[in-house]
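Re: the request from the purification team.
They wanted to know what the chain is likely to look like in 3D before they choose a buffer screen. I agreed to run a prediction and write the result into the notebook, where they can find it.
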Amino acid sequence: MTPFCRLRSHALPFLEDRVDTDVIFPARFLLLMQRGDMGRYFFHDRRIDPDGGAIDGNPFDDPRHAGAQIMLAGADFGSGSSREQAVWALTGFGIRCVIAESFGEIFAANCLRNGVLAIVQPRAVVERLAILESPLEIDLEAQTIGADGESIPFDIAPSHRERLLKGWDDIDLIMEHEGARIAVFEAQQRQVQPWLYGADA
């Protein structure tokens, strides 16, 4: 994964509460495309009407938010189904950080697994950020949100912070913490069961 250190971007505000994963990525699209194509279905039913036309006034296609890599959300963002495709759609649309009042637990875990920084902030802070016209600056090393000259701290578990800073996926994480033990096991197994490693073992 791409390491997450600092990010400067305008924010895409969508402060509706209890937005579940079926809103973020509708289930009917689960079998229709490859992962790299999922961004086009991000919040599909809030962006596209049943006839295939654009829904006027939706924030996702508002030119003011074009290219936003930060999203502002309400309470329980990403609740409901555990589908990881919701996060794939999020990243496919270009979002690398979501600031919300709270998150669905599995959705937050899927964000971490896919290099997305999920930041919890009080509702009043999220609403204040949503009306700013200047870009936000996310500094994961310092654990701050820079907003219109203000520095807002945020909490993150040290292990999650390290994982995002280093761009570790699940395999990287296993190798970092268990790599030495795996190497010892493989060396022992190679001696006991050399046929598992081919003719050159």
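For the purification team: The helical segments are 21-24, 44-47, 85-92, 105-113, 123-130, 158-166, 170-192.
Please add any questions underneath this entry.
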